[in-house]
């Protein structure tokens, strides 16, 4: 069992951008989702990246610089990261405001066209550089887009 921090870039759709962001995240992640997890016997199994996900999850608030705690007991974890505690607004912000120090923690990025950009088999500096370039380009050309921090489980 493992978790990935995935940044999903979505459109800001008024009048309820957070609710619309959740719908878009579901649509953009659906090609990469398979209930039951990875199964190498299936065709195109390499496309499946997660068997569960939630906005924020164990990365709740990271997009706003909230301190993370990875060594919690199961009870402390549920108290801090339980689904009733996590709010979308704590995990969604303008793509132009994604903190630079967060980029090193991101494992994958899904762009509005549905393309998955992943860290797989890339050196740390190479990945951070690639991700920084993509986020900068999106911020310059589409400043109204939102970045959604998603905890993907696989």
Question: How do you describe this structure in short?
Answer:
25% of the residues lie in helices and 19% in strands. The protein is α+β, with helices and mostly antiparallel strands.
Architecture overview:
- The protein is α+β, with helices and mostly antiparallel strands.
- The protein has one domain (3-153).
- The chain is 25% helix and 19% strand.
- The protein is built from 3 helices and 6 strands, in the order βαβαβββαβ.
- The chain has helices at residues 17-29, 74-81, 124-141; strands at 3-10, 52-55, 92-94, 108-110, 116-118, 146-153.
- It starts with a strand and ends with a strand.
- The relative contact order is 0.28.
Secondary-structure element order, N to C: EHEHEEEHE
Mean pLDDT: 87
% residues in beta strands: 15-25%
The helix/strand class is: alpha+beta
Low-pLDDT segments: none
What is the total tally of β strands? 6
- As an assembly, this protein is single chain
Largest sheet: 6 strands, mixed
Evaluate the radius of gyration.
15 Å
Number of separate helices: 3
How are the elements arranged and paired?
Blueprint: E1 3-10, H1 17-29, E2 52-55, H2 74-81, E3 92-94, E4 108-110, E5 116-118, H3 124-141, E6 146-153
Parallel strand pairs: 1-4
Antiparallel strand pairs: 1-6, 2-6, 3-6, 4-5
């Amino acid at each position: 069992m493992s978790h990935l921090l995935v940044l999903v870039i979505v459109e800001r759709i008024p009048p309820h951008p957070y609710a619309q962001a959740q719908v878009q995240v579901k649509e953009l992640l659906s090609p990469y989702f398979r209930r039951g997890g990875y199964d190498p016997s299936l065709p195109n199994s390499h496309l499946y990246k997660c068997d569960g996900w939630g906005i924020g999850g164990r990365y709740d608030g990271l997009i706003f610089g909230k301190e993370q705690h990875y060594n919690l007991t199961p009870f402390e974890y549920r108290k801090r990261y339980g689904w009733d505690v996590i709010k979308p607004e704590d995990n969604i912000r303008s793509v132009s405001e994604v903190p630079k120090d967060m980029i090193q923690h991101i494992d994958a990025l899904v762009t509005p066209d549905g393309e998955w950009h992943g860290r797989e088999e890339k050196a740390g500096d190479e990945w951070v550089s690639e991700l920084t370039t993509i986020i900068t380009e999106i911020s310059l050309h589409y400043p109204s887009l939102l970045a959604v921090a998603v905890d993907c489980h696989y």
